[in-house]
Design brief:
Helix content: 25-40%
Structural class: alpha/beta
CATH topology: Transcription Regulator spoIIAA
Number of strands: 5
Number of domains: 1
CATH architecture: 2-Layer Sandwich
Shape: globular
Oligomer: single chain
Order of helices and strands: HEEHEEHEH
Number of helices: 4
Distance between the termini: 29 Å
Strand content: 15-25%
Largest sheet: 3 strands, parallel
CATH superfamily: STAS domain
CATH class: Alpha Beta
């Protein structure tokens, strides 16, 4: 924040909510960048959206990061909703049997 700039309640209310956008590849190779993106989004006001519609490559490490984000939201009492999951991501989630962990405990949001 620049010197002399103040954040008001009105400014906070107009900030975009957190949105985790997963790129085409969600693997161990991109893990550090994905984690940094998720942490950055958690600093924004909730509720949160997760967009996995572009994922064309995913491995167990990538799914673990997504599960960690979902569990972090759950522990903090924060709502999130999926706004898209690619067939590749759906298949990985099903294969690893973590679908129940990735369902939002809060009300579904409409984009």
């Amino acid at each position: 924040m620049s010197e002399g700039t103040q954040t008001t309640a009105e400014d906070t209310a107009t900030q975009p909510r957190g949105r985790v956008v997963l790129g085409g590849s969600c693997t161990i190779h991109e893990g550090a960048a994905i984690k940094a993106h998720m942490i950055e989004q958690l600093a924004r006001p909730g509720p949160y959206e997760i967009d996995g519609s572009a994922v064309s490559r995913v491995d167990a490490a990538g799914v673990q990061l997504i599960v960690a984000f979902a569990l972090d939201c759950l522990e903090r009492g924060l709502e999130y909703a999926w706004i898209g999951r690619s067939p590749t991501l759906e298949q990985a989630i099903e294969l690893l049997s973590v679908g129940a962990l990735l369902e939002s405990p809060g009300a579904a949001m409409t984009p």
